[in-house]
Amino acid sequence: MRFSVVDIGVEEDSEAEMRTPHVVVVMGVAGTGKTTIGPLLAARLGVPYAEGDDFHPPANIAKMSAGTPLDDDDRWPWLDAIGAWAQGRAGLGGVVSCSALKRSYRDRLRAAAPGVVFVHLAGDRALIENRMGQRQGHFMPTALLDSQFAALQPLGADEAGAAVDVSGSPDEITERAAKALAQLPDAS
User: Fold this and answer.
1) Which of 28-32, 33-37, 138-142 shows the lowest per-residue confidence on average (mean pLDDT)?
2) Beta strands in the chain (DSSP E)
């Protein structure tokens, strides 16, 4: 089944509920808040959360820590591991963070777990760079933000998911994400 991309702005709806046990991939460039919003959204939906960075092999983390962008050969095993987790949660629901910047990456995730939906955390580059500069203990340096934006291919109209603005507080962003998911057609 195909879904439309739903672009949710700043409106809030505290009654937003998901109707089906989707596996949700919280995606976006570094610094959009995937690691913050993912667990909040999972708690809101009552499903488990998996941190996408935990699926990276040590060589990928070392490469990014050194300021070197990953290439597709680096990403395939990582995406396959995330896809396997998502496939294992099919019908049960779950939330996993994963940059999923390119359509080909999302296609690979969908090949492993056809029912996944995406929440694309999107926002102004200056806001994202500011947030990246404030976080501590993360391996992704701000210097790689340009390569992230260069690689980003936003969700297509034929991809299951929603774009969600990252301005505001984590609770506001989570609320918008839950509302966007509730507006998606039922995947069953």
Assistant:
1) 138-142
2) 5-8, 23-27, 49-50, 94-97, 117-122, 161-165
* Residue 48 tokens, joined: 């488990």
Helix (H, G, I), strand (E, B) or coil at 64: helix
Which contiguous run of DSSP H or E holds residue 86?
Answer: helix 72-88
What residues have CB less than 8 Å from 91, skipping those under 6 apart? 21, 115
Cα–Cα dist 109/104, whole Å: 9
What spatial distance separates the first Cα and last Cα of the chain, rounded to whole Å?
9
- State pTM to two decimals: 0.82
Residues 152-183 have pLDDT tens digits of 999 999 999 999 999 999 999 999 999 999 99
The CA–CA distances, whole Å, from 54 to 2, 85, 138, 156 equal: 30, 12, 12, 27
Using CA of residue 165, residue 170, residue 176, residue 178, what is the dihedral sign? positive
Say what the pLDDT of residue 80 is: 97
* Closest C-alpha among 27, 2, 44, 23 to residue 88: 23
| Closest of 49, 43, 40, 6 to residue 174, by C-alpha | 40
